[in-house]
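Hi R.,

Here's the chain you asked about this morning:
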Amino acid sequence: MLLAPPSLALGTIAVALYRVIKRAETYSDSADDVDTGGESWEQMRLANERNWDERVKHHTKPCATFYADCLKRISEGKQVSSNHKSNISSSSSSSGSCITAIDREALGPHVQGKSLLHLQCHFGLDTLSWIREGASEVVGLDFSRTAIEKARNLSKELKIPAEFVVSDVYNAEKALCGRQFDVVFTGVGAICWLPDIRAWAKQVSKVLADGGIFYIRDGHPMLNALADDDTPGYDDRKLDEKGGQDLLLAYPYFETKSPMVFDSGYTYTAMESNERLCNTRTYEWNHSLFEIIQALIDAGFTIQKVQEHRMLDWKFMESMVKGDDGFYRLPEHQRNRCALMFTIMAQKKSVQHVRCNEKKCL
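And here is the predicted structure, written out as tokens:
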């Protein structure tokens, strides 16, 4: 449950994960003062950070097939110079980019010649890919120092100009020294690591220029609420007559004051490397689709488009079927029962400047 990584949550999730799930007591409505029976938000953030620092070392090994394949596509693509102002077409850039067709179609036209900020960028493969998709400037931000160091090294090695900043999302404005961007992008597996979706939306607004575009694609909160292969007892249930697994609610759909606490010795490339993690404890939160949309509206965004998708980047459960497009889907008879991903396109409202005299505003 909720195992997709920040950005590039692609590849098969290990089905042999062991998890001990407990409910912590409470956390406050402020992301700065979360309390889980003695563990503060800062302690939880640090636990997640240590977990992701360690994951980077596994994800960047040659045996981590998907990431290796993606890196190969980028490294074999067209080199770009530091003064690059690209208008590369989607068709020609796809061989040198890891951006999915869904994201390219939705966001591609908006990034041409624009500055782009990638929040929760992991070690930067998507970030670097957006240069190949036509962005004039890209900045990636992630709380894992190990991930950022790897991203900076890749930028140098591949001669793809990019900047990478160490920070969690809640401190993005400060870490970026108040800079604003034309486009802000968030990829799959990002917001489940954040306790307060309202504070997140406010930070997105602060780092986006007036009139700028925000785009997110992530696992659907209904998917995140489902039992999966790691839920105790779920694998013991029989398949239905058409080979589907029962779709059972096992986790909160709405944002809760208690994080979901997991202990897993593996990352989602574990089946390829078969190596265990030392920092096993993670804290995660779900956020309903309404909560996400309303948080963006309250932060000053106009919602332009919302989509719910029947496909997914990774194999959430064993009965899912991989299509020719590389996406996984539920068995055909179950495909209309649950959304698997969502995308939101939103625009930050422009500030209306007015001149006032003693009688009226002009």
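One quick note: The first helix runs from residue 41 to 59.

Cheers,
M.
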